[in-house]
What we know:
The chain has helices at about 50-55, 100-105, 115-125, 140-155, 175-190, 200-205, 225-230, 235-240; strands at about 5-10, 25-30, 35-40, 65-70, 70, 85, 160-165, 195-200, 210-215, 220-225, 245-250, 250-255, 255-260, 265, 280-285, 290, 295-305, 310-315, 320-325, 335-340, 345-350, 350. The chain is an alpha+beta fold.
Amino acid sequence: MAKITLSKLRHSYYPDPKTPEDYALKMIDLDWNDGGAYALLGPSGCGKSTLLNIISGLLVPSEGRILFDERDVTELAPTERNIAQVFQFPVIYDTMSVRNNLAFPLRNRGVDEATVARRVAEIAEMLEVTDILDRKAAALSPDNKQKVSMGRGLVRDDVNVVMFDEPLTVIDPHLKWKLRSKLKELHQRVRATMIYVTHDQTEALTFADQVVVMQDGEIVQIGTPVDLFERPAHTFVGHFIGSPGMNILPCETQNGAAMFRGQQIALEGDIVPGEGKRTEIGVRPEFVTLAESGVEAVVRKVSDVGRHIVVETVIGEDRVAAIVKENAPAMGETVHLNFRPDRTRLYRDGWLATTAGEAAQ
Length: 361
């Protein structure tokens, strides 16, 4: 396995890029440690697949370097990087048995048959496909086909990194949770460096120890699932992660305080000095409560989602969601909202602009 370093990486599909908008990847500096479980998370078109293709060697970046354990592999072909990839659609040989599919990457590299048999047995046991080893791959269900595809990536013990590109896209929703759990278990057992590319926050947050959130070719935050939920560094992260996403409310700043519709809103800490075109308050629905007093709002919609109730309100033209456990108000009712101070933050031009600490008084 390898530590992967991306240094001053930029990429454009244009031959002569002029402006930042011409770059699919604008500037990437990133380290992934040996043996870690990582996710690239973002919407379609954010650059995550471009970045994956650069790491794998399918694309040469316009600028910057890719290092595996400090070795520059920027110009190396995919076959020279010792990378295993698992794609959206299972890459297996339908006419072969499951056993021979798993053995193929090893036999293709001249590994002796005793080692092949041992590794195939180990991977089959991990993936829970031992009982179908002698079945033709063509007869498998989609989830078992993807398990075999994963096994082909994991069977070699000389790979630097295993990369998963939206591997659960074609899997039925009721089976996805099983494969997500299996992937997490596999990483804990084999401790390979794994990179998982997805637009699905649930897949990223359940698989990865560290998540890289991308937007418009840039990294907006790197952190643990807890970091991304509890303290989004950018309003995009707040919107993209969480269901429903973070409430974002326009505000003004006066004498070091945040003012929303004439009311001062207590924040987690001090406002960081700086200039910007736009200031906003960010607070997740989990930290908005209904109270006897506070910011007045009108209930627009009430949704019982099982574990809790989502109350959607409006304050003028601004929408604010709150999560409650019981006693939800009726539609059209006037309520008062309180924002938990230590989870309420100021954002300037999208970026976090409050210090962590005691809530401002």
